[in-house]
Amino acid sequence: GIIGPNGSGKSTFFNLLTGVYKPDKGSYIEFNGHDISRKPAHLIAGMGLSRTFQLLRLYGELSVLENVLVGYHPHTKYGPLAPFIRGGEVRRQDKIVKDNMMELLEFIGLAEHAEIPASELSGGQRRLLALGRAIAMRPKMLLLDEPGAGLSPVNVDSLMNTIMTLKKRYNLTIVVVEHILKVVMSTCDIVSVLDHGQKISEGKPEVVKNDPAVVEAYLGREMADDDIRAALNASYW
Question: Which residues neighbour 128 within 8 Å (Cβ) at sequence distance 6 or greater?
Fold first, then answer.
């Protein structure tokens, strides 16, 4: 989990990892043994680094099934001319892929909506679809940027249960940025804290939440330490 006050650099960090932003000269970002510092986003995704966005970027005019098929696209085994040359094999591969994507939609609870436009889904269903599309890319590591944004507490709990089930099913490493700190503290093995673009703390949740640097980053120094910790526990954890 990655937490930190507003403006601390959490989403910027994700954008640097996934090629949305280019790092400063001299920076080095390694993923799975490869230098990805200057690689374009689509190549980074093809190497197994997938993500969701805080502001959902779905293809509203495409169906739910077509959206997850877009996620699978980097793994398509034939080129644009293949349907004209070996149409039977292409149709066979297409059926296998669609069956796999329908199985994924069934798993996340969207199979019955497979043929409707993504724009017609509810907010919670759109979050699930964004997650499904990222999973369809067959990632080694999945980055989730505020997956619970805009959801009710009940829907947040349901979404996190789905995420943890997907983690086990697909053997994923998951990194989550989330402002709902209860979610981070109850699901993450390790928590990193950013403040003004710098990592100020890292460790198990129970250690991080009592770190003086974390307490100060969230609430400042207007109160005594004991009062700050009491307020932090009551408000966030």
Answer: 108, 109, 110, 159, 162
Reported pTM: 0.82
- Other Cβ atoms closer than 10 A to 9: 18
Distance of CA 85 to the CA centre of its chain: 38
Distance spanning both ends of the chain, measured CA to CA: 14
β-pairing verdict for 198-203 and 191-195: antiparallel
CA dihedral angle for residue 158, residue 3, residue 203, residue 213, rounded to 10 degrees = -140
Give the other-Cβ count within 10 Å of 190's Cβ: 13
Query: Alpha-carbon distance 103 to 35, whole Å?
Result: 34
Amino acid at 150: G
pLDDT in tens, 5-36: 888 999 999 999 999 999 998 889 999 999 99
CA dihedral 49, 172, 143, 59 (to 10 degrees): 80
- According to DSSP, the residues that pair with 34 across neighbouring strands are 31
Identify the DSSP state of 39. -
